[in-house]
Amino acid sequence: MNALAATSRNFRQASRLLGLDSKLEKSLLIPFREIKVECTIPKDDGTLASYVGFRVQHDNARGPMKGGIRYHPEVDNDEVNALAQLMTWKTAVANIPYGGAKGGIGCSPGELSNSELERLTRVFTQKIHDLIGTHTDVPAPDMGTNAQTMAWILDEYSKFHGHSPAIVTGKPIDLGGSLGRDAATGRGVVFATEALLAEHGKSISGSTFIIQGFGNVGAWAAQILHERGGKIIAVGDVTGAIKNKNGIDIPALIKHKNEGSALKDFKGADTMETKELLVHECDVLLPCALGGVLNGANASDVKAKYIIEAANHPTDPEADEILSKKGVIILPDIYANAGGVVVSYFEWVQNIQGFMWDEDKVNMELKKYMNSAFNNIKEMCRSQNCNLRMGAFTLGLSRVARATLLRGWEA
Ligand SMILES: NC(=O)C1=CN([C@@H]2O[C@H](COP(=O)(O)OP(=O)(O)OC[C@H]3O[C@@H](n4cnc5c(N)ncnc54)[C@H](O)[C@@H]3O)[C@@H](O)[C@H]2O)C=CC1
Ligand SMILES: O=C(O)CCC(=O)C(=O)O
Asked: What is the pLDDT of residue 1?
């Protein structure tokens, strides 16, 4: 099942649980606007190359639309549509005053030079600058993009609209980025993990973890789990996977990666088959890379007791059903990885106020938002008699539906 079908299925299930009016249900699913642009750039060798860029603006009932921009070869309209929809429910679950959007360009960022990436980002921004805005749609980083990408968007957008630091979040600190945003998604994942484990009488320091993806989200989650005494026994990325049953030295692994070396060449662990990573024995599994990695082909072999969805839609509906029958507890993406967009909200607020917060305040506020969302989801689970995914979806959906009705929706 593709990402859009899977996301829409979860949405419909939540809508039925809430007993939403069928016309309202239909209207909430349809995106506000779908943008598709051709981005043609000169390559360093003088040839021309063209890439397709997308921005899907899903819903703005609760505020400006918000969501990352992904550079990855698998980016297509359906994938971006699904991710935009997830952002609408995620911002509502986190209870921040935003709607949802997502963007992306179908490209392999690792195969483009820095100057090619800059040209591509600037051309993409030129094509969409009239349709995004500080109070309409605010992009941020996602897979394959980072603070530098946001700096290029800010600069290009500002040529048309004047200096506009709040047009993107996740930008460099020197351009108005927030302290703590780089680590925020990983830190939020750790707060979420802590809350879930505590519910079950467990702790980070008494648990073993496996992490798929060692980029922004995976590496920060690993580092913070490690600082809190968690034992990370296996890690994988696009280049391979490694394991050490005594726990991997995460600061050393981050240093190794930052020196440009592949995971499999890390001396403090043994290599393992990448397909074994997700089904290896552990307490907590954290998918921090692509969508759909837990599916009908591997779900019945998963041995983790808890899955924290740090990636967006890592579990497809077939796997969801198999895992739930096995008693595996899944903390859904629209809550588990919301720390990034929560601190993006803090960044936007700081830009609008022209006042910078210190990092302790950012992290403390992030913890408050994550804990409050967790408690709200648990209340929904109790009142709807449902699992955590449906608890999060019904929470997000009910908030968006209420805002839509209050604004005067008519069938
Ligand atoms: N960056 C952010 O603030 C947020 C990111 N997310 C989600 O978290 C996930 C990861 O995003 P980032 O860490 O930002 O991306 P990133 O580009 O920094 O890192 C991605 C990681 O995934 C690995 N990867 C890629 N393909 C893989 C494969 N086939 N098998 C195993 N590993 C693979 C890469 O090697 C890399 O380590 C995505 O699903 C993204 O949508 C969610 C919320 C916020
Ligand atoms: O920080 C943001 O605005 C969006 C982050 C994002 O794309 C996500 O949560 O999936």
From this structure: 79
Q: Are 151 and 172 in contact (CB under 8 A)?
A: yes
Q: Whose CA is nearest to atom 1 of ligand 2?
A: 341
Please enumerate in sequence order all residues whose Cβ is within 8 A of that of 171, keeping only pairs 6 or more positions apart, or say none.
147, 150, 151, 154, 165, 177, 347
The gap from C-alpha 289 to its chain's centroid, in whole angstroms, comes to 9
Ligand 1 binding site (Cβ under 6 Å of any ligand atom): 68, 141-144, 185, 212-218, 236-238, 288-290, 310-312, 337, 340
CB 386 within 8 A of CB 394: yes
Q: With respect to residue 383, please indicate whether it lies within any of the assigned structural domains.
A: no
Phi, psi of 210 (to 5 degrees): -125, 135
Taking the chain, what is the end-to-end CA distance rounded to the nearest angstrom?
Answer: 30
Q: Are residues 235 and 311 in the same domain?
A: yes
Residue 386 has phi, psi (to 5 degrees) of -135, 175
Are 134 and 171 contacting, i.e. CB atoms less than 8 angstroms apart?
Answer: no
Q: Are residues 203 and 294 in the same domain?
A: yes
394 is in an annotated binding site: no
Low-confidence ranges of the chain (pLDDT < 70): 411
The beta strands (E) that lie in 125-178 are given as: 137-141
Number of domains in the chain: 2
Domain boundary pick from 164, 194, 219: 164
Q: Which two tokens stand for residue 148?
A: 């530098």
pLDDT at 411 (0 to 100): 67
- pLDDT value of residue 363: 98
Helices first, then strands: H and E counts in the chain = 14, 12
